From TrEMBL:
Pfam families: Sulfatase. Gene3D superfamilies: Alkaline Phosphatase, subunit A. This is Choline-sulfatase. It comes from the Bacteria. Belongs to the sulfatase family. Its EC number is 3.1.6.6. InterPro entries: Alkaline_phosphatase_core_sf (IPR017850), Sulfatase (IPR050738), Sulfatase_CS (IPR024607), Sulfatase_N (IPR000917). One of its GO terms (molecular function) is arylsulfatase activity. Residues 15-376 form the Sulfatase N-terminal domain. It comes from Formosa agariphila (strain DSM 15362 / KCTC 12365 / LMG 23005 / KMM 3901 / M-2Alg 35-1).
Length: 501
């Protein structure tokens, strides 16, 4: 069967699918995409041998752990306002990409990070290896708790283990001591890095795969999520004095955005001096380059297995990351590079129009329906994302004419044409430690993202932009209604952005 323009299928069997999902990996964290001084030769090759969406975004999140919402949207093809429990729980009514492909005869396999409930994990995959993120976490890439695949979906805490080197340098399993402390205390001398573990398992899967059924692999790396650890050889690639700060570098964010003091923002001291920001960037680039090397090993193993010719490779990050941009460190915001702009690449032998780049708007939750349409797998009715295949087939220029973004009850953004509006409010919040309180700032920002992609010049108060600002505010409110952006519609939300706007 032959697909027009964008894709071609070379075998009678359905294509295999490899989804590579990285963690806190902003768009400019790939050299071929952002041109920054980070080395990513293997991901660059995926871009060269595939197609790139230059305007792909996370829609937002209602939890500081934005990767939870991001992964739920990827797995279900639904938008942020349709998630249950901020994305921690995937209800049975939301068919995941894994169970959807299982139902048409695919073997589905997961390796790596899982942030959702155990029941949805069990029903989504036929098999799995080295599952992480299920309740035991030491904040250390060299001391990561893993689980073997559990068909029953129990994943009990006592079954988690570490991978360490024995006296002969062999990797062995080790139980987790009750006294084990959280924090990045491990090194490459203790055990393998998470990226190495996941890449090894993927390579092993391809080497041993002998089923006549096609496969869908969900390879969910934890890197480059902090702690920003990498083997010394990769750290040595980035001398702090050679690191270039981004155009949006600031020593401190100019106002309270509603969520300034969570864990991510405490990873570096205030103010974010140039020295601090450069060190953070050096560490970020080092863990990305190490990750890139592991992705190279995965692709090499896929080719050696003979499966590459009939495999669609999808590469994406789950969120942006500030690392000094606008004086921030985390991703709890809706600036582009700092929080929501992600790399999105469709690659492999099945891609016909290699090297093409599309500036059409895309969301992470568009990936599921795109893969489904490519493989001729029926898209479940629960999916609200839009397939990007018509764009890749050059049938249309876009499937969206705007994007809309939300972060908790504090921030909203609306993007259309060359402009992006961000609105902030001072709103109510509640926590176990502080009880009820009010936080945030009522601020408006307007950016020309075509001429100012790093969002450095606020145009909102310039008279010549008054008409545009008013029109975008009006449209943003209209889109909020269409999308169901209100606390009554959003599962578990206590506060409504629009009550404070």
């Amino acid at each position: 069967m032959q697909y027009s323009f964008g894709f071609c299928q070379t075998k009678k069997t359905k294509p295999n699918v490899l989804i590579i999902y990285t963690d806190d990996h902003r768009y400019t964290g790939v050299h071929a995409l952002g041109g920054m001084n980070v080395r990513t030769p293997n991901i660059d090759t995926l871009a060269k041998e595939g197609v790139v969406f230059t305007n792909a975004f996370l829609m937002g999140a209602f939890t500081g752990a934005t990767c939870v919402a991001s992964r739920a949207m990827l797995l279900t093809g639904t938008n942020v306002f349709e998630l249950q429990d901020s994305g921690f729980t995937i209800p049975k009514d939301n068919k995941t990409i894994g169970e959807t492909f299982q139902n048409v005869g695919y073997n589905t396999h997961i390796i790596g990070k899982w942030h959702q409930d155990s029941e949805s994990l069990k029903r989504s995959f036929t098999t799995g290896d080295k599952i992480m993120g299920k309740g035991v976490y030491l904040e250390d890439h060299f001391r990561m708790p893993y689980y073997d695949w559990d068909k029953a979906g129990a994943f009990k805490k006592q079954d988690a283990y570490l991978l360490v080197y024995d006296d002969q340098g062999e990797i062995i399993k080790k139980s987790i001591s009750k006294e084990a402390k959280r924090g990045p205390t491990g090194t490459e001398n203790n055990g393998p890095h998470t990226s190495e573990v996941f890449a090894t398992e993927a390579a092993k899967y391809f080497k041993n795969y002998n089923s006549e059924k096609p496969f869908l692999m969900y390879l969910a790396f934890h890197a480059p999520h902090d702690p920003r650890q990498a083997p010394q050889a990769y750290k040595d690639m980035y001398d702090v004095k050679d690191i270039q700060l981004t155009p949006s570098y600031m020593s401190q964010h100019p106002f309270d955005n509603g969520h300034m003091f969570l864990r991510d923002e405490k990873l570096a001291p205030w103010p974010r001096t140039p020295e601090v920001a450069k060190q953070q960037l050096a560490d970020y680039y080092a863990i990305i380059t190490h990750l890139d090397a592991q992705i190279g090993k995965v692709i090499a193993a896929l080719k050696a297995s003979g499966q590459y010719e009939n495999t669609l490779i999808v590469f994406s990050g789950d969120s942006g990351l500030a690392v000094g941009n606008h004086g921030l460190m985390g991703k709890q915001n809706i600036y582009d590079e700092d929080g929501i702009h992600v790399p999105l690449i469709f690659s492999g032998n099945l891609i016909k129009n290699k090297g093409d780049r599309y500036d059409a708007y895309a969301y992470i939750h568009d990936i599921f329906p795109t893969i489904s349409q490519f493989t001729n797998v029926p898209i479940p009715s629960s999916v609200s994302g839009k397939s990007l295949l018509p764009i890749l087939n050059n049938e249309v220029n876009n499937v969206r004419d705007y994007t809309y973004h939300a972060y908790r009850q504090f921030q909203r953004a609306y993007r259309k044409d060359d402009y992006k509006l961000i609105e902030y409010v001072r709103a109510n919040d509640v926590s176990k430690t502080e009880g009820n309180f009010k936080v945030g700032s009522k601020v408006t920002q307007l950016f020309n993202i075509k001429t100012d992609p790093w969002e450095t010049q606020d145009l909102s108060f310039f008279p010549e932009h008054k008409s545009r600002l008013n029109q975008m505010r009006k449209e943003m409110k209209e889109k909020a209604t269409v999308l169901g952006d209100n606390k009554e519609s959003i599962d578990g939300e206590k506060f409504d952005f629009w009550d404070f706007y």
